[in-house]
Amino acid sequence: MIKAKKALPKRATNSTRQTASHSALQRRAKPTGSASSPAKGAASRETKRDKVLAMLRSNRGATIEAMVKATGWQQHSVRGFLTDVVRKRLKLNLTSEKPGKDRIYRIKAARSSAAKAEVTGSMS
To answer: What pTM does this model have?
Structure first.
């Protein structure tokens, strides 16, 4: 006597698996709205970076302590910002002086490219 084979359940195909995982990803996706678009609201909101740069561009300049209070950053973070962002990325002319107890940092206006060309041209 030969026994009849039982029918095995069908396996899910690739397209079924992809659809299931795709719908799971859609459920986890962040909702899109005005809060997630950087173009809207960016002009009206001043960032910590903008605050520090405004302080440095003022005639009075800024101390590390003043930047710490304005941003909530730690001292080493402010120093890193001055070095990495202000000097290296933005290539601004950051100067510091110590007239009294505290060191004051300022961004000096960069010379125009025509003035730089005159200075470098007259040296040779």
So the answer is: 0.55
